[in-house]
Amino acid sequence: MPTRRAFIGQTAAFLGLAATGRQVSAASPAPLTAREAVVQLAPDSYPATSIWGYEGRAPGPAIRVLQGERVRRRVVNELPEPTSVHWHGIRVDNAMDGVSGLTQQAVPPGESFDYDFVAPDAGTYWYHAHNRSWVQVARGLHGPLIVEEAEPPEVDREETLVLDDWLLDPETALIDESFDHPMSMSHGGRIGNLITTNGRFDLSIPVARHMRLRLRLINASNARIFPLQITGLRGWTVALDGMPLAAPEPLEDVLVLAPAQRADLIVDVTAEAGETAHLVRIGNDDRPASQVAFPVSGSAAQTPRAAPAALPPNSVSGLGSLADARPLRLVMSGGAMGRMDSALLGGERLGFRDLAARGRFWAFNEMAEMTQTPLADLSIGEPVRLEIVNETVFPHAMHLHGMHFREIRDGRPVGPMRDTLLVAAQETREIGFVADNPGDWLFHCHMLSHAESGMMTWVRVT
Length: 462
Ligand SMILES: [Cu+2]
Known about the structure:
Strand 21 (342-345) and strand 22 (348-351) form a beta hairpin. The relative contact order is 0.12. The N and C termini lie far apart (53 Å). A 6-stranded mixed β-sheet has the order 10-9-12-17-14-15, with no helix packed on it. It is mostly beta strands. The radius of gyration is 23 Å and the shape is globular. The chain has helices at 4-25, 133-136, 182-186, 352-357, 448-452; strands at 30-39, 49-54, 63-66, 70-77, 85-88, 112-118, 123-129, 142-148, 157-166, 194-197, 207-209, 212-219, 226-231, 233-240, 243-250, 255-257, 262-269, 276-282, 288-299, 326-334, 342-345, 348-351, 362-364, 376-378, 382-390, 396-400, 405-409, 412-418, 420-423, 428-435, 439-445, 456-461. The longest helix is centred in the first third of the chain and has 22 residues, at 4-25. The structure holds copper (II) ion (CU). Copper (II) ion binds at residues 396, 445, 447, 450, 455. The site of copper (II) ion has 5 residues, from loops.
């Protein structure tokens, strides 16, 4: 007879074997292949468009996990150039952040990289290329990453809506290759001429009156800011950048979705059967256009529902003591019509025209490139206040990797946790966060051609 102790030992050994067996069978995570593909993006009267997409689609397949679960994907690179994948808004381990040149080497063509990380926060996130991102994201390398709540809100239907903006040749419908054009680099970034939702310029989702929908909006465009409204719908914003609002906010005015930002809406269909409700985009000429049509037929209920409750909060640390927070300052300068006379590049001070000749149009604290040393060396757990001074005449969508922040106004935190903040032209804003995630984290403009031409820095947390 084995002793109890020996029996436990045997059981543990057996379980260990079983666990090893499971690991072996799970050693190849689901592939996410980045490759070229041909899709019909423009209206049918135009030729098809050659894109780069995950699994040959843009947006790529939605990755869905339950809060706290692991995301495991083998990114296979079948593109003609190196690539990497960033999991935008997820508080990942630094080694999984996907920033080529900072957290990993870019994956060469024909090779692969296994991403494996826990998704600690429920919400709407996304993944996208983070090597030559102003080119690779523009070609279509992005997709939704949805982390579900253990108890999601009760809705009749959920839709993830990936908003994108393509710059196509109007004759051939091929992707315009002028990625490095000084005009887009030095102005608002690469603005397109074909706006899509989930890869369609005319997305239409049939609904019934009094139906309740959860809309997960993701702005995956390179540079376009989407001012959005709803008609034929009554709605609430329940989360921004994945993070739940303390209370749902009635969506009565314009919702501004900057590049990389997300919004979770809960909307009820108020339009009558036979009518069409819309997610409306306000154009540059202030004219409204349909971003998504919701044709209404029939009725899902006799009466409208009560206002939705708040989503369960994520357990993100607060801002800590603002009085003890390390003060940091980031001055953004440059761009067309800016007042930047010179900036540093490769240790040399260059005038604006020399910088422009080298494809640099912007600077952070007078540095027109990502520096060898970080903006700040932070200690783990250290509270930080970061003032962002926009001296340019363009808006910039500032994204912090690895940690969420809150805005500070008049010395107090306001609004929900966010990972991307739109700073308007010539505006100064302040954010606060706790440096609770060790590693090297990028802080950059998500107008991706701005990031490439000078608007990128980083912080180190140890
Ligand atoms: Cu910018």
